[in-house]
Amino acid sequence: MLELLATRYAYVAFIVLLSVGLYMVIASQNLVKKVIGVNLFQTAIFLFFVASAYVEGGAVPVVPKDSAGPTEVIVSPLPHVIVLTAIVVGVALTAVGLALIVRIYTEYGTLREDVLREVRSDD
Fold first, then answer.
1. Which of 10, 24, 94, 102 could bridge to 51 as Cys pair (CB 3.0-4.6 Å)?
2. 86 falls in which pLDDT band (50, 70, 90)?
3. 55, 75 contact by CB (below 8 A)
4. CA end-to-end span of the chain
């Protein structure tokens, strides 16, 4: 078991990041901490995709014109492209979320979820 954990450390990091991110989203009352938790959760998913796409001894998927074909194992670039696209979308969503949090703070003067619920129920 210890040898498996030592060789698959990326999956251990994935589980830790996923757990911490999910805990922050569920347990924290602060909206900024929730956004940070979502980003940690998202980073864990990115790490999982990249770690699962790793091929031991894999080559670049570029084959010269004069070659008959690949003679070795090649690595698929698709998971890395998907992760790169997800990173761009994640940054945009984080920016929108933080902009909304700034507006909430200027309107209500707090970032705590429970206080916001009380203020909204009084209106």
1. 10
2. very high
3. yes
4. 56
Residue 54 to residues 10, 37, 68, 95, 97: CA-CA distances in angstroms?
11, 26, 25, 30, 32
Average pLDDT over residues 2-27: 88
- Looking at residue 79, its amino acid is P
Class of 2-55+73-122 per CATH?
A: mainly alpha
Residue keyed to tokens 């996923």: 18
Q: Is the pLDDT of residue 108 over 70?
A: yes
Q: Is the pLDDT confidence value at 123 over 70?
A: no
Its pTM surpasses 0.85: no
DSSP state, residue 30: B
Determine contact, residues 56/86, Cβ cutoff 8 Å: no
One-letter amino acid identity for 81? Answer: V
Tokens read off for 107:
């309107």
